[in-house]
Amino acid sequence: MTEAPESAGPRAPHAPGTPCWVSLMTRAADAAEEFYGAVFGWEFRAGPLGRPVRASLGGREVAVINQLPADAGLSAAWTPYLASDDVDLTAERVRLSGGTVAVGPLDAGENGRVAIAADPSGAVFGFCTAWAHPAPKGARGPGLPAWTELRTVSAVRVTTFYARVFGYEAEPPSAPDHITLRSGGRPVVALRGMGHGLPRALGAHWLPHFEVADTDATVRQVLDLGGRLLEPAHDGPYGRVATVADPQGARFGVARRVGTVPRPRG
């Protein structure tokens, strides 16, 4: 048996490398609010200047939605943020380990100190020191983040990078080139090597998964709301999961999550 990686939902305390929140950058933020509100039941609270908007569920902050500048030339995408005890030190480790720091480190008010980086394969992620409104440790349920997975050409090649930056311990592969990383003794993220199956136009990327009560019904709802199905619902190592995209093209997973499941056969 193997445990699913811990929820990416905000909670405290966070072991280094634990997903602590997620951010959506999109070209149509108002439309994104309508879409995710319908799919997950999220409620939204605007920041002092209108953006970013914070999404919450049952009083627990779940995500941040921000508007891409019109001239940004970027696609809509979700970005996970991983916990760090010292963002400046983590940024230095990223550089020394072959990654790139694109933004920061900088102070972000009540959310502590943050930075955005890319690993050697080009996958973008953030890291931060604090979260203003943490949910209880281990919080889970429909509408909350379930886990975070890196999709890359080779999981083995980037495992060393993430281990050096966050001090992860790698579990033995549960399937060919599928590696779970542990922090504080618990599984927190998964790395999935896809080889030539990784979409060339997309490249390496982190994919947040959100828990749902019924994966198949959620997929139908996503399609009804103008989203796309990228990977049909199937029974995987952490429950019944599907990969979809919102109407702006931002990819995410939905899963009817289970606590412990048999290891997949390689």
From TrEMBL:
Gene3D superfamilies according to UniProt: 2,3-Dihydroxybiphenyl 1,2-Dioxygenase, domain 1
A Pfam family per the record: Glyoxalase_6
Protein name, per record: VOC family protein
Superkingdom, taxonomy of origin: Bacteria
Start and end residues of each VOC domain: 18-130, 144-257
Xref: InterPro entries: Anthracycline_SecMetBiosynth, Glyas_Bleomycin-R_OHBP_Dase, Glyas_Fos-R_dOase_dom, Glyoxalase_6, VOC_core
